[in-house]
Amino acid sequence: MPLQRFRPISGRCKLCRGEVELHLASTVSAPKECPKCGQEIEPCPSSIAPEAKINVKPSVSNAKAAGFKVLKRLDGGEYESQ
């Protein structure tokens, strides 16, 4: 069962703190009122984080300057420090 978020239409509430998370099956309809405070509720809009895009190809010198340990792959699956 997926977790779905709902919020009171009238605003914040001390009981539900402005948001309620409920486990609902896909066959069950969304509830009309909050199970904690009894106010009318609506589904919260889903917030999806934007994808991070790397515009600059990382270089060995930048990685070393940032404090990372840079390794070079050798034959046979071994690595050595650069």
Q: What does the model show?
A:
This is Zinc ribbon domain-containing protein. This protein is about 5% helix and about 25% strand. The protein is mainly β. A hairpin with a 5-residue loop joins strand 4 and strand 5. The radius of gyration is 25 Å and the shape is elongated.
Structural class: mainly beta
Order of helices and strands: EEEHEE
Number of helices: 1
Compute the number of strand runs: 5
Oligomer: single chain
Q: Report the mean per-residue pLDDT as an integer.
A: 81
Rg (CA only)? 25 Å
Strand order, largest beta sheet: 2-1-3
Please give the largest β-sheet: 3 strands, antiparallel
Q: Fraction of residues in helices?
A: under 10%
CA distance, first residue to last residue: 50 Å
SS strand fraction: 15-25%
Unreliable residue runs: none
Envelope shape: elongated
Can you lay out the helices and strands and say which pair or pack?
Elements: E1 3-8, E2 20-23, E3 41-43, H1 60-65, E4 71-73, E5 79-81
Antiparallel strand pairs: 1-2, 1-3, 4-5
